[in-house]
Specification:
Radius of gyration: 22 Å
Number of helices: 16
Distance between the termini: 70 Å
Helix content: 40-55%
Strand content: 5-15%
Number of strands: 13
Largest sheet: 7 strands, parallel
């Protein structure tokens, strides 16, 4: 079955987006593939389309239950048999699901990387080997990345223990050259086709500030965005609670999301935000991966993140519908001190400190912010973008100089 036919008949799209067809053809042709495609570029189709072209099942390895549930729900709406295995299943339901899967009931089975270490699931996979294994959010395999998950390093052993090596592919939205190499090595990919499409998000306006009073600066930004949907990211639970209360006191319909809440509280907050029952989410970095919400108009970082990867991925949750959106970063010396303390707790503190230093350099540098980010991710970008605070500041200064010169 041709890929275009599957795309149109099963997913309702008339054409591929940049990067999709190359990835699908590489996978279908039996070659490993690493696809680095920007947020909103349709990464999931790159493994869902080839999955429907296989005789056997596809395993999709994904880090978050909410992400797996969201994707399987969308597939079932299109009458594509898909299911995710999660820890909330009763033993009876879990066993029945595996039995149905062994009988060919599902085309895609979503599992967490931790599930691959379960002896019962390993036995199931070896008796019912998949035709295709897709690794979503693959940057989690890299200790240079901000979402490192040790369980991702065990995916390679799982795949290599299967009786036949399946089609094998990995997908992510943000990966520097070092992270890409980590993915290839960590997953044990065999001479993969590496597809990297532009990291640039032209509809996002980037700004950075070092305000004397962050609360006043936050409320000032919020006033320009009143009635719009957005996220305020904080480094700690304490700052998240502080921003949440601050926003509520000033009349903003806000929710909060951090690791100190129960799973039910986090789920309820996320659902309220997705369904626009609340407009603003105050959150730590625990929130956002896999959240598909197109109308986020702004992302404000109340604290400096620990790396440019983390910052760009979180900022990139704005403007997924293609509309103009604003991404603002606050930073201060206290953020740097907090970041250093957090970096020292990492498994490889020297790497974490290097990532933090790159983030601090971004905060302190002058000039075009977009060009700096794109160069960091390996794109040869020079000049001004005209759509960031660095460029706007220079343009204002030029206009002022011209005014003085010309009267």
């Amino acid at each position: 079955m041709e890929t275009e036919k599957v795309l149109q008949e099963r997913f309702g799209y008339g054409s591929f987006r940049p990067g999709q067809k190359e990835a699908i053809e590489a996978i279908s042709g039996g070659r490993d593939c690493l696809a680095v495609l920007p947020t909103g570029a349709g990464k999931s189709l790159c493994f869902q389309v080839p999955a429907l072209m296989q005789e056997k099942m596809t395993f999709v390895i994904s880090p978050l239950i909410s992400l797996m549930e969201d994707q399987t729900a969308h597939l079932r709406q299109r009458c594509i048999p898909a299911l995710c295995l999660d820890s909330s299943m009763s033993r009876r339901t879990y066993n029945r699901t595996l039995y149905e899967a062994s009988r060919g009931a599902y085309k895609l089975l979503y599992v967490s990387p931790e599930r691959l270490q379960n002896e019962g699931f390993i036995r199931f996979a070896q008796k019912n080997p998949p035709s295709f294994v897709a690794v979503d959010e693959a940057h989690c395999v890299s200790q240079w990345g901000h979402d490192f998950r040790p369980s991702y390093l065990r995916i390679r052993n799982f795949v290599e223990a299967l009786p036949q090596r399946p089609l094998y592919a990995a997908f992510t939205a943000t990966a520097t050259p070092a992270v890409r190499q980590d993915i290839i090595t960590g997953l044990g990919m065999d001479d993969p086709l590496v597809i990297v499409r532009g990291f640039d998000r032209p509809n996002l306006f980037f700004a950075k500030q070092s305000p004397a009073d962050k609360d006043r600066a936050l409320l000032g930004e919020m006033e320009t965005q009143r009635g719009k949907s957005g996220i305020v990211y904080c480094s700690t639970r304490r700052d998240t609670e502080h921003c949440f209360r601050l926003l509520r006191r000033h009349g903003y319909d806000a929710a909060r999301y951090h690791g100190g809440l129960t799973a039910g509280e986090r789920s309820a907050a996320q659902d309220a935000f997705i369904r626009d029952r609340v407009r603003v989410m105050a959150a730590t970095s625990a929130f956002g991966m896999g959240v598909d919400k197109g109308n986020v108009s702004f992302v404000i970082h109340y604290n400096m993140p620990l790396s440019l990867e983390e910052y760009y991925q979180e900022a990139g949750r704005a403007g997924r519908n293609g509309d103009e959106a604003r991404c603002v970063l606050f930073y201060c010396n206290e953020d740097l001190a907090t970041g250093k303390a957090l970096a020292r707790r990492q498994e490889k503190p020297e790497r974490a400190e290097r990532l933090l230093a790159e983030m601090w350099e971004y905060c302190r540098q002058e000039g075009c912010l977009r060009s700096y980010i794109l160069r960091y991710f390996g794109e040869d970008r020079t000049g001004e973008c005209g759509n960031c605070s660095g460029c706007s500041g220079r343009n204002r200064w030029r206009r002022f100089i011209n005014f003085l010169r010309n009267g």
